[in-house]
Write a structure and sequence with these properties.
Layout lengths: L2 E6 L4 E8 L10 E8 L1 H5 L6 H22 L9 E7 L3 H18 L2 E6 H7 L16 E6 L4 E8 L2 E7 L5 H11 L7 H8 L28 H12 L6 H31 L3 E5 L6 H12 L4 E4 L10 H8 L6 E2 L11 H11 L1
Parallel strand pairs: 1-4, 4-5, 6-9, 9-10
Antiparallel strand pairs: 1-2, 2-3, 5-11, 6-7, 7-8
Bound molecules: 5'-O-[(R)-(carboxyoxy)(hydroxy)phosphoryl]adenosine and zinc ion (ZN).
């Protein structure tokens, strides 16, 4: 076992984690220290992430966050065995910050490095027990990844062996949440605000004129689509007069959320049927949504399905999940050297690269 120092800067979170697992500790109970700075406030006034501002802010934060993690762990770089970082996908300039910082540290402290694929981090994030020491899924499990950039179902056979079962053909779930929220005048990123206004609905809330679609819910495969749903939200919003907005926007938000949840549950249960895998783990930023969590708990309670959620603090981007992914590839770490980042990296290419380097 090794001490892994991990960095994440692929989008708008700068994050550092130290994953300490010594020979006496089981991999499932490592000591974890982590620190994170979210740039949400920085980008909010622009309604989305501004790449150059993101890169500059990562540069500004990464050093202090690293010191803070080492201080929390009462240790120094001496004790670190492996340095891991997100090498893609993501914003090129933003990715370069963690990559160059990690490679430089590894070079000067003579440590080995591991480039990690961001999605592998999300897919293995349900194996972080989190501050509540919650149970974690054993392999194999079905991972439903719902984030700002991805909506995918994977069979996680074992570490390093991931089979894509289905994905959205257009918008990611988080993207549909954020765009629908924006249409209702909610701040960026709107997922959490849309959930909040949906919760304002009550029995006497007025009806809206249209039922929102559950796109591709009955397709035989595990593919999904959310862009039409977003367009339906736009039409529903157009039918609402200014004075009706406070009463009707919560209803539209609730109906939108309900449509997403129904599609995700339907496709995930189908993935269990098709693969015979009876463990389900939900990860990515949208996994923070409590309505989604409650609906999955209800839908699986009478079935022989074990359900897991990534701990709340590790649903959105973080470095603990990068350290978790790195912990399965330690033997493949290499001395620092020439490096690259991969803004459009596929998970398959990343795993092939790690294997080729070993
Ligand atoms: O995983 P993540 O940090 O970013 C990507 O890697 O893409 O996820 C961010 C996404 C955003 O779209 C955000 O609106 C959404 O997760 N999100 C939520 C909630 N909290 C965050 N969506 C719905 N309900 C929430 N409570
Ligand atoms: Zn992410």
């Amino acid at each position: 076992m090794a001490n892994i120092l991990a960095f994440e800067s692929s989008c708008d979170e700068t994050a550092v984690a130290l994953f300490q697992a010594d020979a006496r500790q089981d991999i499932n109970t490592p000591r974890l220290f982590h620190a994170l700075h979210s740039q949400i406030a920085l980008h909010a006034e622009y309604g989305g992430v501004v790449p150059e501002l993101a890169s500059r802010d990562h540069v500004k934060r990464i050093r202090a966050l690293t010191s803070s993690v080492l201080e929390q762990a009462s240790t120094s770089l001496n004790s670190v065995d492996v340095i891991a970082y997100t090498a893609g996908p993501g914003l090129a300039g933003a990715l370069m910050v963690a990559a160059s910082f990690a490679q430089t540290l590894a070079w000067s402290w003579k440590k080995v490095v591991l480039p990690i694929h961001h999605l592998e981090g999300h897919l293995l994030s349900p194996r972080l027990a989190g501050e509540n020491h919650q149970p974690i899924p054993q392999f194999p499990y079905i991972a439903l990844l719902v984030s700002g950039g991805h909506s995918q179902l994977y069979a996680i056979e074992s570490a390093g062996h991931y089979r894509l079962l289905g994905e959205s053909v257009d918008d990611a779930v988080g993207e549909a949440f954020d765009k629908s929220a924006k249409m209702m005048g909610l701040p960026y990123p709107g997922g959490q605000y849309l959930e909040q206004i949906a919760s304002l609905c009550h029995e006497d809330s007025p009806k809206i004129n249209r039922t929102l679609p559950r796109p591709m819910i009955n397709s035989q495969d595990l593919m999904m689509s959310f862009s039409g749903l977003k367009t339906a939200v736009w039409h529903a919003i157009r039918e609402v007069s200014d004075e009706q907005k406070p009463q009707k926007f919560p209803v539209i938000a609730r109906e939108f959320q309900q449509a997403i949840v129904e599609v995700l549950i339907h496709k995930t249960l189908k993935a269990c049927d098709q693969t015979g895998i009876s463990r389900v783990a939900i990860c990515g930023g949208v996994a923070k949504n409590q309505v989604l969590r409650d609906a999955f708990i209800k839908a699986t309670s009478s079935k022989k399905i074990e359900l897991f959620f990534t701990p709340m603090e590790f649903c959105t981007d973080n470095a603990a999940m990068i350290a978790m992914a790195a912990s399965f590839h330690i033997s493949r770490a290499k001395p620092a050297g020439a490096y690259a980042v991969y803004p459009h990296w596929t998970l398959e290419d990343a795993l092939a690269l790690i294997t080729a380097n070993s």
